[in-house]
Amino acid sequence: MKRLKKASTHLSRIFTGTYRLTGRVVVFDDAKTPFLKLRLSDCAGDHIAMLNLEKTSVPERIGHLDFVTASGVKCLSGQFVLDEFRKAHREEVASLDTLQSLPRVYCPVPETFDGLIGTAQSLTSHHLRTFLSRVLERKERLEAFLNAPGSRNYHHAYPGGLLQHSLEVANHSVAMLRLNEPTMPRLMQEACFVGGLLHDIGKTYTYDSKGKPNAAWKLCSHDVFTLEACAYGLAYLDAHEPDIAMTLRHLWTCASPGSRYGQPAAMTLARYIRDADGQSAMADNQQRAFRHQSSKGFGRIGQNLFWQPQLSTAASH
């Protein structure tokens, strides 16, 4: 490792910001000077930063995925050398954009991740944006949400599949709503998106941070965890948009595939999310059924039978 103290004299720009701490390790330069090598992450990507332990003390009680504020300079080598590193203040965290702190590095499906961030930050409802942050930016939720499969042996059964499926359901639900009810208020459209996005959030209780099934996966149905996963956000909505809070509770608990409570659906949004959920699952399974065989005839995934008709050459283009 080259001497970072010398490299730091060649400066190109100032570095400052609030991030998640996603990695750290002690390294030494050629002069045996100890540095703390840090990985600072957000929704845009990562920064690798070096902290000279002989010049700057490390604050206590900063753990994995904690919010930190760091500042320093960027060397010509491309690394950042910090002169400040501390736990972020509450005001600094509150000033971040919606889902800005989600570490992109943890998501196995980066294009889908970018779609989530872009849509979430485009929501016009401040209260729904705050709700999403309170649900998805919690340390105990975010890694599982980004890494978990959509199911263990069924649809979207790969790392990042839960995010892929959730975003498909959210987008398709809104598409159906706009097609059938184009005059629906924007706030309700955004509530439909949020409802679809979090319809399977209970699965983050049944997988660990690496997307592996845990004890809850064997002992509980994931849908019983949905309201629990959203409780902190729903408490906020109860104080600011109580009818939207009740709408989301209804969407996640009325009678539909994946919801076991049995309450009849009382609004069309629930039907859109139900149908989008089934369509997303079936489309993924149908693609898998024909992945390793002829593009016509019958294919099977588990007990599910799929069929693709034989088409003429002209019709297939």
TrEMBL record:
SMART domains assigned: HDc (SM00471)
Any single Pfam family the record assigns to this protein: TraI_2
Span of domain HD/PDEase: 158-291
NCBIfam families recorded: HDIG (TIGR00277)
Protein name per the record: TraI domain-containing protein
